[in-house]
Amino acid sequence: MVRVSYEWLWLVSLSLLAWACTGAHEVDPVRDTSELETPDGEADDGSVTPDAAEELLPGDCVSGATRCVLSVLQSCVEGLWQTETTCQHGCEAGECLAPPPIGTCAEPLAMTLGATLISTTRTDNANMTWQRGCADAYANLTPYGPETVFLLTLEAPTMVRFSVDPIDITYFGLYIRGTCAASETEAHSACGGSANPGGRFSKDVLLGTGSHYVVVDDFADANHPPGRFRIKAEAIVTPQCAGQVPRLLDLSTGTVSFSGDTATGASGTYWRQYDCPNDAISSLGKENIFGFAVAKRGRLTIQVTPTEPSDSKVGVYLRRHCGDRDSQIACGYTPGVSAVWMDVEALPAGAYWLFVDDFASNIDGPQTYDLVLNFE
Question: Whose CA is closest to 203, among 156, 138, 251, 140?
């Protein structure tokens, strides 16, 4: 007779249960990384749909979980997010990043707008790769192979389309930095790659005045070695967002000022209210939209002062992606008389979109204002 202990049966049962719950799934190595063109609550023409005023409340978090809000690490305590610390070198995937390696950078090749260049990743330089955020958007793949670097200098803020056309049947990745060897100056969301061997791809990026290092990198795939490619950078018209074309601001000197009027804007979007002051209503009036880009991590301050009428309500909010309300990273509000003041520490390099919004009602409408941005 075979005797089986209850303890052994219990262990076997747990193992079978764990196997059944785990399951297996495949990850598609090719992912669509295009940005959402029409966020919830906005029609294709940029107008706000009738149900847009219904705010979605944030979901409860699981105690012990962590998340990143820009460079701030937050942890979940009893179902609520609480700030834990500010990460000096940035925050990704719920943890503070270690100090980035400086490494070395190959001598860059000159690039000018409108010119097509032929080059190759068959180089002796394999010192750089893109940040984790780019890997997350590209099926968790990272270009560890050799790279070629180009230097593009702009005289004004410009929307630029980078097009990469492989000559050889292999994979290429593209990313952009403000300082060649410093990964912390890599522009957020300004990366892309081949969806298949030899596949063409393009990436539209808002870049500021000054020099930009454009890296074309290889993925070190044994079946698809480094190869040749064509690359072109061309200026394009700034695309519409929420029913208007954003005005581009130049922060290359560290400070920019502008006097505006929300009456000249459009009522095409509104802020993500649950992140904003509790006494502020939803900003369903007309808004002006501004785009700007910074080439390094730094501190951004924003001040908006209503001028006529001076006691007008003003809402101000900042997004990583113009058409995506969920990419909002900061907001401010004044009920009138005083100015809106926003302070964003450790803002990562890259492009951002600023909204100055009024509040549609019979006692508060469009207003003029003075806007001042500082970055250091």
Answer: 138
